[in-house]
Design goal:
It is a single chain. Helices cover 58% and strands 2% of the residues. The chain is mostly helical. The chain is globular. The chain starts with 6 loop residues before the first helix and ends with a helix.
């Protein structure tokens, strides 16, 4: 199923992923990156020639749909999608599962779907739960790979911004 990323979520991703700027930070394991799409995660793409329209299609197919964002309540979509982009789809689903009390196996199935739809946590509580588990993930990265600490401020600020947007947009 092909769906569309809501405009405010797309703008959030473009803002945090740097838009059309090409980067190749030696400390970033993703390698060459444009619109937040890395060569390492997408070896089949010519990252340097990527257009915004192509980037959006990649995000829809490989992150939005893969993380089942279109099946989630609106207020969960930004946090889950943002994490899928930044940490990978499986990690994003595991964090979702922890935040809603499902078995964190990284697979989006019937149990995860029903718990996401049936959760009693409202937008603010869900955002705090999700962000807390995401921060645990980031801290584990920093502890096991100390060189990654250079990205910590960005990860933490991005997470805080996603919580704020989620809490404010209660869709």
């Amino acid at each position: 199923m092909k769906t569309e990323i809501p405009g405010y979520i797309w703008q959030f991703i473009l803002q945090w992923e740097g838009g059309p700027k090409i980067t190749n930070d030696p400390m970033d394991p993703g390698g060459v990156t444009k619109y937040g799409i890395s060569q390492r995660a997408n070896p089949d793409l010519d990252i340097r020639s990527l257009t915004e329209s192509q980037a959006r299609s990649v995000y829809v197919d490989r992150y939005w749909n893969a993380a089942h964002c279109n099946e989630l309540p609106g207020y969960m979509q930004l946090l889950v999608f943002n994490c899928a982009v930044n940490c990978g789809v499986t990690r994003s689903i595991k964090i979702l599962q922890r935040a809603i009390g499902a078995d964190p196996d990284g697979k989006y199935g019937a149990d995860t779907r029903s718990k996401a739809i049936g959760t009693r946590a409202g937008p603010k509580q869900f955002a705090i739960n999700y962000a807390s588990w995401l921060m645990v993930h980031y801290m584990k990265i920093i502890i096991t790979r100390p060189g990654q600490i250079k990205f910590a401020r960005g990860w933490f600020s991005r997470t805080a911004d996603a919580v704020y947007v989620t809490s404010s947009n209660q869709r």
